[in-house]
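G., the chain you wanted modeled:
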Amino acid sequence: MAARRRVETMEENRGKLIAAGRKAFASEGFAAASMDDLTASVGLTRGALYHNFGDKKGLLAAVVAQVDGEMAARARAAGADARDGWEQLLAEGAAYIAMALDPEVQRIVLLDGPAFLGDPSRWPSQNACLQATKQAVGKLIADGVMKSADVEAAARLLCGAALNAALWVAASDDPQAVLPRAVHAFRLMAEGFLSEKR
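Predicted structure as tokens:
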């Protein structure tokens, strides 16, 4: 019983730290966020942060994974009403790019994430997105909607294009003006995979 309560407390503390980190990183940015202020805001110590995440960068990785996972869910929801698998793929990509306008996504996932955690293609959350895209691409190729191509290569190019378009929007001086250009270019690139039978 005591062991179960201890696990529950650890999970509760982990959740509190992720929530506090998310708030601090979104408002102040990773570099400026104070670990002491962050932990004190939820009644915990630096020791709790170290125990759960190793360091501040470990907390950022957990926050990025949470936000990136939510982005994937939002993208799937955006494609849910598409008339077919191809339009769903395009809608999800466009929705992912458009999330670069969300200040929290912009700051945490698209600016600070790559700056402090390195190449996003190596993040577990991005690899989950890649796996889902591989499944969609494999079905579209099998159904003759997309040209015959290496499934992993096509999925990596599509995911990479959406991510890089979102990074461009986030880092631009005028994200609102860049967004439609980025989405249009993404669609044009993706259409290169379309089968002539479509």
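Residues 2-28 form the longest helix (27 residues).

Shout if anything looks off.
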